[in-house]
Amino acid sequence: MSGTLLEQLVDALRCLPGVGPKSAQRIAFHVLDRNRAGAKHLAETMLQAIERIGHCEDCRTYTEDRRCPICASDKRDNSVLCIVERPQDVTAIEQAAEYRGKYFVLLGRLSPLDGVRPEDIGMDLLRQRLASGVIAEVILAVSTTMEGEATAHYVAELARASNVRVSRIAYGVPLGGELEYIDRGTLRHALTSRRDL
Amino acid sequence: MSGTLLEQLVDALRCLPGVGPKSAQRIAFHVLDRNRAGAKHLAETMLQAIERIGHCEDCRTYTEDRRCPICASDKRDNSVLCIVERPQDVTAIEQAAEYRGKYFVLLGRLSPLDGVRPEDIGMDLLRQRLASGVIAEVILAVSTTMEGEATAHYVAELARASNVRVSRIAYGVPLGGELEYIDRGTLRHALTSRRDL
């Protein structure tokens, strides 16, 4: 590490996503000019977060406790399990929907070519959860990439083996989406998956 | 402070310029997913920077030492002094030009209406520097706002009182700029300030 402390700060800021040399400089000056208190608080919170945030032992999302608030809550429905790929998917669903069930976070998706095997995305843990008899329905909210499809297929097989109902969230044209700007794959899917009125 | 540590981190990230709730979330997850080491380094550097970076006692720019590297350097020309408004202006000139003189950073501009008086922008210090007899030329690189003009005028008077030559950087159409996209004020100035060839 060399240069002045200001140069070191500009350099270090580039670890943030989407921050190039120019924005790093802008952020550094902004912090020094106007918000040292806020930046101090940020730095301290960041150190704590990095140190203490790990994975929930039930659903594998991020949490600083053994179990995340959703898994620990007795107000959530234990019989419905929504399967997502990443912790941010949990946040997205929580912010958007009135979902009252629980989650299971894969932290990845099946990809034999990249060496990602079922046990790497928590399938052992999921199998146990499914076998426990508590879960009545599994909702798949994984991506529609090839790896996502493979993952969905694998989870569906697991669920069926335990006689658990499996569903998948709907894919199609977003609400308010203009057909003209929707990609072809989505539009094709929306047509073939049309529903009778 | 409430909420999970992750929510606190998202909240704290919003002190950065241009970071709204969505990008704060994206940054928080990026850090936790992929770059805890980089973020730890950033947080530590930020704490150090906030703690230790103050103002150079000669030119008033940011530095963690008593004098900034430029003021402390014996390779820079003491007889030329470039007057800028902000520390980031020093960085901009250093990165762009082959300027070998020194700087003086006002940390603001004259604005009687907002209660910014000459002594608030270091004019006492500048007067002393000019009176010392070391400085032969002052280059004004302040903004072209009304406050910038008032500041330029004030500094020019100071310099003349000490028999120091005063110049101002050139304003006009940027190199490579298309006339069609230049604002009227700049274009008008470029015409009236035309130079014989």
In short:
Two copies of one chain form a homodimer. By secondary structure, chain A is an alpha/beta fold.
Task: Explain what the structure shows.
The structure is a homodimer of 197-residue chains. The longest helix of chain A has 17 residues. Chain A folds into two domains: 48 residues, Orthogonal Bundle (Helicase, Ruva Protein, domain 3), CATH 1.10.8.420; 91 residues, 3-Layer(aba) Sandwich (Dna Topoisomerase Vi A Subunit, Chain: A, domain 2). In chain A, a hairpin with a 6-residue loop joins β1 and β2. Chain A has eight helices and six strands. In chain A, α1 crosses α2. Chain A is of the alpha/beta class and 197 residues long. The first copy, chain A, has a four-stranded parallel β-sheet with strand order 4-3-5-6. A two-stranded antiparallel ribbon of chain A has the order 1-2. In chain A, 45% of the residues lie in helices and 11% in strands. At the A-B interface, α1, α2, α3, β2 and α5 of A face α1, α2, α3, β2 and α5 of B.
Largest sheet of chain A: 4 strands, parallel
Name the strands of the widest sheet of chain A in spatial order: 4-3-5-6
Quote the average pLDDT of chain A. 92
The chain-level structural class of chain A is alpha/beta
Oligomeric status: homodimer
Helix proportion of chain A? 40-55%
Order of helices and strands of chain A: HHHEEHEHEHEHEH
Question: At the first level of CATH, what is the class of the largest domain in chain A?
Answer: Alpha Beta
The poorly predicted ranges of chain A are none
- Known CATH architecture of the largest domain in chain A: 3-Layer(aba) Sandwich
Main interface by residue count? A-B, 47 and 47 residues
The helix count of chain A comes to 8
Query: What is the 3D form of chain A?
Result: globular
- Total of domains of chain A: 2
**Strand tally of chain A, please?**
6
